[in-house]
Every structure is written in structure tokens, then in C-alpha cells.
Design a protein that fits this description.
Blueprint lengths: L6 H7 L4 E4 L4 E3 L4 H14 L4 H8 L5 H13 L3 E3 L5 E3 L4
Antiparallel strand pairs: 1-2, 3-4
Helix pairs in contact: 2-4, 3-4
Amino acid sequence: MERADGKSDVNRKLGLKVVYEDSDIVVFRAPNEDQLLEILKNLLRERPMTVKELHSYLSGLASEDKIRRALIKLVNEGKAYVMNDGRFVIAGLE
């Protein structure tokens, strides 16, 4: 089922579980912390992104603060870093 804004395809691409779906709405289960880390890594493999860009993909599923905390965890673990322009990138993919 396709929504006009294309959000359902993005959420399906992220691997989120569909809880309910009809012609008007699709409800997904929000990711837990480990799932959010994996989702962020997958998104950042495509291209470097800012917190706001990542939030545009994950709006309704994770707040900017939650995304920011997960990104900082990735940075602290050496799995990602912040570029000079504020975009995050997965380590080794620059």
C-alpha cells in the first residue's frame, strides 16, 4: 500500500514491523535502541547526513534527541564521525 508522501516505502525499507495497515494509514512499531543504531548506520552508508536529514526519514519514529544520542554513541564507539560541515558519516566510508 502506498501513501501519497511515500513514507510507507521508506519505513518498509528501514525494516520496521507493520502493526496495522489499511487504505488510509500504516502503523509501524518504533525501533528500539539497537534497531535505531542499525537503521542510522544503514542510512549513513548511503550518504553523509545531518541530524535534521536523518530525522526527516525517521520523523514519527524517533525524536531528534534520540537520534542525536544514538549518533553520539556511534561516534564514541568509533563507528561514525562528524564531518566539518556537521554531517555524520560511517567510519571508513568517507
